[in-house]
Design a protein that fits this description.
Layout (H helix, E strand, L loop, with lengths): L2 H16 L6 E2 L1 H14 L6 H7 L8 E2 H11 L10 H16 L9 H14 L8 E2 H15 L5 H13 L3 E2 L1 H9 L9 H15 L5 E8 L6 E9 L2 E5 L7 E6 L5 E4 L9 E5 L4 E5 L3 H19 L5 H75 L8 H144 L16 E2 L2 E2 L4 H20 L1
Helix pairs in contact: 1-5, 6-9, 6-10, 7-10, 12-13, 13-14
Length: 587
């Protein structure tokens, strides 16, 4: 059901309320007010001249519903963009129709709760006018309401109520549904607060598309502190508020097909953690216990799956399936009725043929009786004539006896024909008996088909359960795979850091080797110069002795020979290398 159909239902209630004499017509002045209010709440530019132009040929008298529909579609519904508050729109239509149709004196609900039931009625009602809700949707709503109140569903009580509906029309209007819930017939043993909370919970799920809500802890993005928020999950977003009353909204987490949710290990003193990754940010959430954590993860994962498959919310999809099932059953019922009518027509034709055959038998029997009467009359006349003319007709006795024999033969033929007609009558009765048995066989086949349909539905439910278990197993395997990928990336980054440190050490080793070679060369040159000067001094001043430098202490030895640096320089280089290693590991 699209946005236009949902809006038309509420508008229909408002238009019907303005139709005081129930003639299907409303005055143009009232329609002007209604159109102006609709444009205001739906944020559409209102054109007051358009209504006058639309009905300029009928300046006087009321305007019918059919005449208002083209104007409503062209100047209002075609301009709707969906950026208005649906609740304000529904309340405006509710205000117009509730004053005329609702009396809360004998009910246990408030006007706000009656408004929520009215919205639920519009959601579950059939897409035909006048709006009604069928028995199946009534049971669905009452079951939801009973579960929300924490009560147990009493099947016998609803079956009794269904029998009362069957005696009427098997359907309810919006005001009859409000009276049914408000009278407390299906909430006996519950207080008014439980009934109010149950109505609100069903309203939030069916009308506001709230799939799950509750308190959880959220980690901030700037201060990194944990704050308790009231979270509300809808098919395409998660909103979080300061409190349960939803007075102050703190932010939204927009969901799409690229979002994901995964559990986290306990840290920072917080337990039952999970991470929501959206297209722009990631949110760390802490649930109150493991059960709530799994419920939220499962609910968010289902929302993302529905968005990826471009499917509506579960309750809207379930409503569509129920309607399709009703249409299918209605088509099957119509087909069955058509077949029954055909069978009935065929039976009537056969009965007409049997009736014609009975009439033919009756006529044959009447003709035979007439022939018999005539024969008896003729025989009597002959006997009388014989007695009178016996003396005169002795000569012709033989001829008369032959005539009597001939008449007896004709009588036997007539009797044989009557017996044949009786045999035909018995055959017709056997044919009727065969038809009755065929009808019984057809009824047995119909019951067998119904049982097969029930078994098919049970098997379908089992397959859906298996599918759900497979989906859960796939989601768990995906979470483990992501954790292993994180560990692999961490090890690769550590390996790269170690390789960088090894390359730095190799460069420092090469620089130290070059410095050692330069120092060795300098020492060799200095030694050669010293030997030259010592030789010269020995030649000129033999008594003089050069002063040698003192001992340098123990010289450091490396893998490549004597070290070109002191132990203090070595300690300084080791300290710098350790600082570089600590810095790379922290990075």
């Amino acid at each position: 059901m699209g946005l236009r159909d949902e809006l038309l239902k509420s508008i229909w209630h408002a238009f019907t309320a303005l139709d005081v004499d129930k003639s299907g017509k409303v005055s143009k002045s009232q329609l002007k007010v209604l159109s102006h209010n609709l444009c205001t709440v739906m944020k559409i530019p209102h054109d007051p001249v358009a209504l006058e132009e639309h009905f300029k040929d009928d300046d006087e008298g009321p305007v019918s519903n059919q005449g208002y529909m083209p104007y409503l579609n062209k100047f209002i519904l075609d301009k709707v963009t969906g950026n208005f508050d649906r609740q304000d729109f529904n309340k405006m239509c509710w205000t117009l129709c509730s004053r005329k149709n609702l009396d809360l004196c004998q009910l246990f609900i408030s006007n706000e709760e009656a408004f929520k039931i009215w919205c639920i009625f519009n959601f579950l009602s059939e897409d035909r006018y006048p709006l009604i809700i069928v028995t199946e949707e009534i049971e669905y709503f009452l079951r939801k309401l009973t579960e929300a109140m924490g009560g147990s569903w009493v099947e016998e009580r609803f079956e009794d109520y269904k029998l009362q509906l069957h005696s009427k029309q098997q359907r309810l209007s919006a005001w009859e549904l409000i009276s049914l819930v408000g009278s407390g017939h299906f909430s006996k043993g519950m207080d008014r607060q439980a009934l109010s909370m149950g109505i609100s919970e069903v309203y939030q799920e069916l009308i506001l598309d709230v799939l799950k809500q509750g308190y959880m802890m959220k980690k901030g993005h700037k201060r990194k502190n944990w704050t308790e928020r009231w979270f509300v999950l809808k098919p395409n977003s998660i909103s979080y508020y300061v409190g349960e009353d939803q007075a102050e909204k703190k932010g939204d987490i927009l969901l799409d097909g690229n979002c994901s949710v995964e559990p986290l290990q306990d840290k920072e003193g917080k337990k039952c953690l999970f991470l929501i990754k959206s297209s722009h940010k990631s949110f760390e959430i802490s649930a109150s216990d493991k059960k709530k954590k799994q419920e939220w993860i499962h609910a968010i994962h289902n929302c993302v799956s529905l968005l990826r498959q471009d499917r509506p919310a579960p309750h809207r999809e379930a409503r569509q399936k129920r309607r399709e099932m009703r249409l299918k059953q209605q088509a099957e019922q119509e087909e069955l009725e058509l077949r029954m009518r055909e069978l009935q027509t065929s039976n009537e034709v056969k009965q007409l043929e049997l009736e014609n055959m009975r009439k033919a038998l009756d006529e044959a029997a009447a003709n035979a009786a007439e022939e018999e009467r005539r024969r008896l009359q003729t025989q009597t006349e002959l006997q009388d004539r014989y007695r009178v003319e016996l003396d005169r007709e002795k000569m012709v006795r033989q001829q008369m006896e032959e005539q009597v024999a001939q008449k007896s033969t004709e009588l036997e033929q007539y009797l044989q024909r009557v017996r044949e007609l009786e045999d035909m009558y018995r055959q017709l009765e056997d044919a009727l008996e065969d038809e009755r048995r065929a009808r019984q066989d057809e009824e047995a086949v119909r019951r067998l088909q119904a049982r097969l349909l029930e078994e098919e539905a049970m098997k379908r439910a089992e397959l859906e359960q298996v599918h759900l278990r497979q989906q859960r197993a796939i989601s768990e395997t995906e979470a483990e795979k992501q954790e292993l990928e994180k560990e692999r990336l961490a090890k690769e980054s550590a390996l790269q850091a170690a390789m960088k440190q090894l390359e730095q050490l190799e460069e420092e080793r090469k620089e130290a080797l070059e410095q050692y070679q330069m120092v060795s060369k300098k020492l060799e040159d200095a030694a050669n110069n010293t030997k030259t000067w010592k030789h010269k001094v020995a030649e000129h001043e033999g008594l003089l002795r050069l002063i040698q430098p003192g001992s340098k202490g123990q010289q450091l030895i490396t893998n490549w020979g004597p070290a070109a640096f002191s132990e203090a320089e070595l300690n300084l280089r080791m300290k710098k290398w350790q600082e570089m290693k600590n810095h790379s590991s922290q990075t």
